[in-house]
Amino acid sequence: MICPKCKSTQNKVLDSRSTQSSIRRRRQCESCQFRFTTLEAIKIFDLIITKRKGNREIFDQKKLECGIRKSFNKRNIDEIKINQLLQEIQEQIVQLDCDEISSLELGNIVLYELSKVDEAAFVCYWAMFGNFSTINDFEQLLSNYLQSKKLQTEKS
Ligand SMILES: [Zn+2]
């Protein structure tokens, strides 16, 4: 991103907000301190998900949302929470900055974000979609989860 004032390419992101199709970022130029906003289209819609059997499909936000809702079952679903969760997941995927991810990677991102907001939903999502090929994969995820939980507890 180029500063509109001094054309420097060095800038930092002060704030970012994503919608369904774009990310709005508030930036500050590191050389002249000028503040500007950029609107970046999310590439996520071209993202290819590779399945374990080798077939590929285009990332489907609706499908993801549907799966997440299912994992909350019929318990009280907090719409704000769901939207925040979807945005977090989206941000994580955008940050990977790649054209293809495996369904396993995507599943792990979703599980990780779910684990931060709702334990029951995390377990439920895992039971439905956790296509782990080995018990080690699950063990790995679980230890990451417990680790992050430990950090959260230590912080509070
Ligand atoms: Zn500048």
Helical stretch count? 5
The largest β sheet comes out as: 3 strands, antiparallel
Task: Give the helices and strands as they follow along the chain.
Answer: EEEEEHHEHHH
Record field, number of beta strands: 6
Instruction: Please bin the fraction of helical residues.
Output: 40-55%
Structure description:
The chain has 156 residues and is an alpha+beta fold. It has two domains: 1-41, N-terminal domain of TfIIb (Single Sheet), CATH 2.20.25; 44-155, no CATH class. Helix content is 49%, strand content 21%. The protein has five helices and six strands. It has helices at residues 61-71, 79-96, 103-117, 119-129, 135-155; strands at residues 11-18, 22-29, 35-41, 48-50, 56-58, 100-102. The strands form two sheets. It has a three-stranded antiparallel beta sheet. The protein is globular, with a radius of gyration of 18 Å. The model has no long low-confidence stretch (mean pLDDT 81). The structure holds zinc ion. Residues 3, 5-6, 8, 29, 31-32, 34 line the site of zinc ion.
Fold blueprint:
Elements: E1 11-18, E2 22-29, E3 35-41, E4 48-50, E5 56-58, H1 61-71, H2 79-96, E6 100-102, H3 103-117, H4 119-129, H5 135-155
Parallel strand pairs: 4-6
Antiparallel strand pairs: 1-2, 2-3, 4-5
Helix pairs in contact: 1-4, 2-3, 3-4, 3-5
The structure holds zinc ion.
Provide a compact summary of the structure.
The protein contains 5 helices and 6 strands; from the N terminus they run E-E-E-E-E-H-H-E-H-H-H.
